[in-house]
């Protein structure tokens, strides 16, 4: 029997025994292993795997070199049950642009040269192989058409291993290769048995849930459970490492154990050694990324020069909120991986962080056309649709992911966003909870559930959800912002201010965060208006789409008796409203103040312009404008005012 140790739990079979999980990237080790010296430890040692490190000078292009490396890596990763890493590598493999002269009708479907998104982001090809010409693996060169069919088979097989059966079938639907014909009947059997499988998984999951609920603590199921196998596992791996009997996959496992135990410095060192020895394991890169929490830590890593390093840096820059650097890396990578869905999705996520929602919408629509059964990253797309209040589009997306795979955290998150947009907050919370049952470290679900509790005025539950989010990722500005909102609701502005400051530290380009902090400074308890003005200025420089900052700057300067500054911001706010072709109470307020201000400054021509505009409105502002015009005309004519105070008794 086998069990996945690092997953924090095991699966039970029908006979009560332990079976191995088939999904995810956790390495497989014997269930009977409890760390004893006599146990048979089969975790990927160097005696069982031979790596070809032959140095050769390749005459192939960098694209062909990448293909051969990825083909070998996919099989090696799949053999070690690193299915997510294998899938990632397969997606990059079919994302490399083929020679148009060698295309056949069945393998051009994924080469989407007509896409406007592809043309928009296309750049020059980058040099991906190390300058020394070192190859980490060597592979036999297949016939071109056979190789291309084989690439799509590898992608479909990786989807199959990750239980994404519809995506696998979509990849193979036009393929005529021998291997494709082997996998298609298996997919047919899977679809026929899918209902029974889901029913069994559901019942087994309910049983496990009832057992776990007894041990859970807190309103949101917070638990301090730990993996008791880590101590013995670390001891065995340390021994293998000291004796130089551990391969790159064993180092990856060792890095995971060290990370779980909190030894981050050593975990980084071990993971760097793993990716330098075997750079195609994206799971190892991902774990290393989670340990790079600052730029200084990133710069301290001694990484070999390999094209996989570019993917890693782009991802780390994205996590460190270095959006422009990340975008530049991904666009350069598209020079070689022209049709990579992964890169396109990451570009969409970076632009989402930059709040370029129109471009993000176009990118994800194009992505869904090319990969219609894709679920991963679609939660970001749902956030865009939620922000733009596109009810029908979000409803369609929710229906689509339900039909594809409703037992995915991303699917539950999308459905939760849909119900939230409809104002059904209790039902939305149900789906965010379901997402967390499937993946308790799913960051978006914790944050979005906190937002729902804020809407429901359940402040304690909101605070609990946000704290769980920042425990998972201390750089999540949305959770810090949510904590600030929650504490502001219960009348604790000093705590709220602290959390708002944390949020703007991690996302200084978001005007909403600066506005929230400014409003906190304006509260009765703090009443720090000068600090509020500084925050509103930052918001105005960050593309304040809600048009709050300029108006509040004008009002605060007027309140502080700074008429020149107030006039400056009222004028800018008025210009913005004119550009956006909108009017309202703010327009009347700005016109009235400017007319009065310029009349006081004896700039009668400018004052008359604003008074004339006020005459177009009905109400007291019209009478005010008439009065101002009458006074200015009298002043300009040189006659004294006929007011009573001008006459001597």
Automatic annotation (TrEMBL):
The keyword Protein biosynthesis does not apply. It comes from Hibiscus sabdariffa. Keywords: Cell cycle, Cell division, Mitosis, Repeat, TPR repeat, Ubl conjugation pathway. TPR repeats lie at residues 443-476, 477-510. This is Cdc23 domain-containing protein. The lineage of its organism: Eukaryota, Viridiplantae, Streptophyta, Embryophyta, Tracheophyta. Residues 66-346 form the Cdc23 domain. SMART domains: TPR (SM00028). The keyword Methyltransferase does not apply.
């Amino acid at each position: 029997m086998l069990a996945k140790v690092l997953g924090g739990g095991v699966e039970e079979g029908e006979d009560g025994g332990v079976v191995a999980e088939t999904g995810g990237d956790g390495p497989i080790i014997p269930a009977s292993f409890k760390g004893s010296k006599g146990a048979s430890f089969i975790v990927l040692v160097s005696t069982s795997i031979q790596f070809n490190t032959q140095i050769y000078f390749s005459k192939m292009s960098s694209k062909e070199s990448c293909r051969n490396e990825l083909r070998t890596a996919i099989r090696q990763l799949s053999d070690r049950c690193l299915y997510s890493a294998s899938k990632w590598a397969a997606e990059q493999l079919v994302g490399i642009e083929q020679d148009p002269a060698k295309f056949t009708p069945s393998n051009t479907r994924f080469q989407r040269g007509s896409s406007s998104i592809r043309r928009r982001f296309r750049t020059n090809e980058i040099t991906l192989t190390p300058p020394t010409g070192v190859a980490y693996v060597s592979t036999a060169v297949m016939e071109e058409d056979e190789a291309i069919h084989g690439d799509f088979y590898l992608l479909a097989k990786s989807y199959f291993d990750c239980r994404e059966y519809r995506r696998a079938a979509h990849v193979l639907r036009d393929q005529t290769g021998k291997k494709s014909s082997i996998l298609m009947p298996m997919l047919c059997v899977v679809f026929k048995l899918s209902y029974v499988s889901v029913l069994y998984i559901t019942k087994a999951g309910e049983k496990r849930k009832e057992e776990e609920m007894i041990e859970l603590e807190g309103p949101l199921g917070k638990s301090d459970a730990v993996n008791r196998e880590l101590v013995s596992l670390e001891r065995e791996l340390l021994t293998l490492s000291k004796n130089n009997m551990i391969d790159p996959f064993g180092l990856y496992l060792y890095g995971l154990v060290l990370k779980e135990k909190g030894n981050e410095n050593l975990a980084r060192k071990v993971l760097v050694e793993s990716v330098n020895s075997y750079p195609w394991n994206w799971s190892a890169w991902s774990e290393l990324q989670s340990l790079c929490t600052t730029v200084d830590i990133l710069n301290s890593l001694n990484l070999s020069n390999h094209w996989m390093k570019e993917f890693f840096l782009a991802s780390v820059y994205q996590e460190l909120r270095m959006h422009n650097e990340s975008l530049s890396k991904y666009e350069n990578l598209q020079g070689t991986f022209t049709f990579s869905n992964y890169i396109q999705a990451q570009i969409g996520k970076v632009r989402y962080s930059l709040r370029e929602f129109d471009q993000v919408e176009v990118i994800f629509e194009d992505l869904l056309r090319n990969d219609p059964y894709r679920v991963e990253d679609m939660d970001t797309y749902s956030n865009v649709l939620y922000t733009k209040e596109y009810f029908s589009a979000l409803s369609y997306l929710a229906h689509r992911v339900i039909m594809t795979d409703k037992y995915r955290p991303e699917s539950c998150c999308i459905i939760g966003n849909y119900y939230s947009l409809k104002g059904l907050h209790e039902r939305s919370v149900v789906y965010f909870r379901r997402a967390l049952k499937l993946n308790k470290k799913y960051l978006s679900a914790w944050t979005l559930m906190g937002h729902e509790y804020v809407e429901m005025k359940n402040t304690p539950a909101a605070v609990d959800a946000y704290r769980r989010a920042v425990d998972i990722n201390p750089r999540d500005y949305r959770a810090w912002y949510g904590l600030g909102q929650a504490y502001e609701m219960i009348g604790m502005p000093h705590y709220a201010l602290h959390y708002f400051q944390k949020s703007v530290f991690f996302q200084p380009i978001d005007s909403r965060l600066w506005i929230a902090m400014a409003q906190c400074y304006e509260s009765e308890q703090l009443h720090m208006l000068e600090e509020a003005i500084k925050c509103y200025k930052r918001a105005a420089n960050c593309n304040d789409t809600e048009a709050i900052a300029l108006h509040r700057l004008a009002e605060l300067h007027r309140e502080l008796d700074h008429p020149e500054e107030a006039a400056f911001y009222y004028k800018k706010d008025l210009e913005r409203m004119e550009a956006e072709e909108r009017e309202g109470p703010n327009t009347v307020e700005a016109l009235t103040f400017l007319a009065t201000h310029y009349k006081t400054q004896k700039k009668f021509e400018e004052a008359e312009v604003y008074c004339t505009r006020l005459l177009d409105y009905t109400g007291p502002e019209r009478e005010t404008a008439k009065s101002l015009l009458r006074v200015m005309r009298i002043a300009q004519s040189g006659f004294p005012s006929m007011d009573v105070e001008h006459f001597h008794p």
